Amino acid sequence: MTVAASTKLRLDWTMIIALVIFHIGAICAFLPGLFSWKAVGVALLLHWITGGLGITLGWHRLLSHRSFQVPKWLEYFFAFCGTLALQGGILWWVGLHRHHHLHSDQDVDHHDSKKGFLWSHVRWMCFEVPAESDIPRFTKDIADDRFYQFLNKYFFPLQVVLGVVLYAIGGWPFVFWGVFARLVIVYHCTWLVNSATHKFGYRNFETTDNSTNCWWVAITTYGEGWHNNHHAYQYSARHGMKWWEIDITWMTIQVLQFLGLATKVKLVEAGTAKD
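Predicted structure:
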């Protein structure tokens, strides 16, 4: 499918309207009556909890790639944190991500970077996603889990509950920063992994896709910017493979390993990345 062929796909107006509303809400967060440094602090904390512990560590390295194992209660905690990032149902996210790795930058890849930066960043979500029909065969290991079924079904109501809690604690500034601004920032950080790290940066490995290592994406996504490394060795718990490729999520996994909470950690051999 070419970029022009995307016009043959049905527009997903629910997604389009939701994205517009959240971005407007994020802009409104800067209004004088809604801005406070405490609210910004809440947003940053929730960015780490939902985007770092939730999406990067939980949904991506733990669930999508099974790069390591943790006790089930901790796995559920990370999965719950990822749900609060409001990036769709957990089965939907994991299934599409595994599909992406199988078909990275091929025509059937839902955010194929060859279709352009804007398409791989966000435009693909504005249309129906044909790859959704393949989700069941990519999520057999978690599809029957009742907790994941719950998260997959109620991810939006859970965000509403979070908003109510934030309002009770700090009023509307906490809501606009802790929900709208934080979600939009986490969204674009995640989307940059689909777009920027398939366009900007360098490559340690020759892969069949356009994946690159991009240091500034790595900073904003807790280590996900070392994307070429990841596509070369997708099951490795460590994405930053050179000493200077800082990978905050890998450091977190090391702490969990030290505490005896992370086991069966998958890694590639030292010195694999070329200088």
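Summary: The chain has one domain: 10-258.
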